[in-house]
Amino acid sequence: MRALAAALLLQLSGLCSAQANGEDPYLWLEEVQGERALSWVQGQNEATLAALQGGPQASKHSALSQSLAEVLASPKRLAHAQQMGGYLYNFWRDAAHPRGLWRRTTLASYRSAAPQWETVLDVDRLSQEEGAPWVWGGANCLLPQTQRCLLTLSRGGGDAHVLREFDLGTRRFVAPASGGFALPEAKGSASWVDRNTLSVATDFGAGSMTDSGYPRQVKLWKRGQPLAQARLLFEAAPQDVSVWTWAEQIGQERVHVIERRTSFFAGEQHVLQKDGRLQALSKPADASMSPFADQWLIELRSDWKLGDKTHAAGSLLAIARADWAAGKRQFHTLFKPTPRSSLQSHVATRSAVLGVRMEDARQQLVQWRYQKGQWQEALLPAGDLGSLSVSALAGQQADHYLLTRSDFLTPARLELGEVGRAERQLLQALPEFFDAGTHEVQQLQARSKDGTAVPYFIVKPRGDMPKDGAPTLLYGYGGFEISMKPSYSGILGRAWLSHGGVYVLANLRGGGEFGPRWHQSAQREHRQRSFDDFIAVAEDLIQRGITRPARLGIMGGSLGGLLTSVAMVQRPELFGAVVSQVPLTDMRRYHRMLAGASWIEEYGNPDIPEQWATISRYSPYQNASAAKPYPKVLYTSSTLDDRVHPGHARKMVARLQELGQPVLYWENREGGHAGASTPAQQAQLWALSYGFLREQLMGPKPGPASP
């Protein structure tokens, strides 16, 4: 025992010495598949399972895991579909097919009470036959013929994937020996130019990838031609983020776009001409253009001044493609934001553009139609439910669209609509996975450190709150212009709400709830504002008497994992438990790990001293301390996450253990950035997370209630 204690003391002194010299003692944990690192992960997983599943917790965990597995494997789920040719295609997973089926049906059958599906590809069978843990990534089919498709599959759910040509007639892959297209595992994209030609952005070998780990070359690849002989179409700089290739089918016309990203939000777009040349679209760097019928749609992320007129950031503009080519710049404004409104998304059907508009974090469905040279706007009825998602069923080949509606307490509904018709057909509705009648939803707001009003939603039991505070889970993200919206979750309902828990969803700066300006106000040197907003919501919940620190937990993933880690380090006294999923934590090295360099526009560059001076003040890994006791924290990650390096979570856990802070760690061996690949893996992950929160926040808690 003395020898072990002496060894541990020697190890700790060595770590402290390394840190004093500016070294990182845990760099070895960045070796994703390193033997020493995986041995450490195995030890952490065993300790976490023992703590959360063992002993008196075993029966509780088993019951929770089984309950959540029922939700994830329920056959009563929405079957979203995409129409290609005469069939509607859907990807489906259930208990019998955990890796999923790619299947199809007709429109008439899809509209019936019991659609008849036929299997096109069984991913479970493919995985078994090829001995690979394939995870479905989607299909890109050549329209309008819809005979050949490019299927995307990843090993274990990572961003890197293989791409293989598939024949819908034979329902088999087209072997490369027979002229089939196939790309080895890499991050990238490919798009059909014609039946025998692809535009491809992939790893072409040495020097073909950016510093962020994405392709920087697009090549034209002919059937039967070795990939090495493909003709170069476009090349970006190594310091750029990436290049992508995509196409939009408009009737018989195919508009093919090559997109260069010089940073996460800015770049260039080029249209591939019939003669093989590229024509640049002269637009603001951070604007994006997409074709609709004979128009260009232009979405702005910053103000665009043309002559004596300024188009506001967040606007959606339209102009005839012929006028654009002729150099004209007289636009029709489809959407113009206000300080509290934004356009969340838009999609194009054959004759209309459909958009989801958000006002004070509540959404509406709007339609724009171009008829007889004029744009006409109409607000489409969508009820008073909280969250909307719209997709064009067949792209611009037809006028059908799918609308998904839900809120925190109302299961999602899938409806089929058609441009020009007021009514929509209810196709499917999720079952009620928990008794939502016991809870109610409110929208409140907190005041951030600088006085900014920060809205948040609260889902709570009806009636008065307990005098000693209710167990409360606060969730946030606050970045990359991604909006947090009300939505129904059977997992949340069963694991948390049905046990009397309160759930809070914060609309932080950095998100997209109020458009580009709301996002940009928390970028780079202003990142602390998002953290301040999150902390302000926590303080507001305590001041209102809804909860108290011992019963307040926080959860977030990816950037949200950074958010929760920062909040824990900066204000540990506010929280009773933390769950941080696939997080960033080491902001000194984030840009050197996997895709991290692509996020410099969001966080800043730590290699620039002035920017590191700002980042260093909040980076959790560098600021973790033993000076104050932290709430108990559970970190989760995935070995095969090739977006946010698992080294972030690993190193943070090792650092907290070194400091004597209470921490648990769970790392799934597959799952990519989602953290899990199959329903069983997802059920285990959520059971661990919510079981941990319930144990920390729902049991008896000592100490006085907050005033």
Keywords:
S9 family peptidase; 707 residues; alpha+beta; five-stranded antiparallel sheet; serine protease; 15 helices; eight-stranded mixed sheet; globular; disordered C terminus; single chain; disordered N terminus; 34% strand; Prolyl_oligopep/macrocyclase; Rossmann fold; signal
Walkthrough of the structure:
With 707 residues, the chain is α+β, with helices and mostly antiparallel strands. 22% of the residues lie in helices and 34% in strands. The protein is built from 15 helices and 39 strands. The strands form nine sheets. Strands 32-33-35-34-36-37-38-39 form an eight-stranded mixed beta sheet, with helices on both faces. A hairpin with a 2-residue loop joins β20 and β21 (309-311). Residues 1-20 form the signal peptide. It comes from Kinneretia aquatilis. Residues 496-697 form the Peptidase S9 prolyl oligopeptidase catalytic domain.
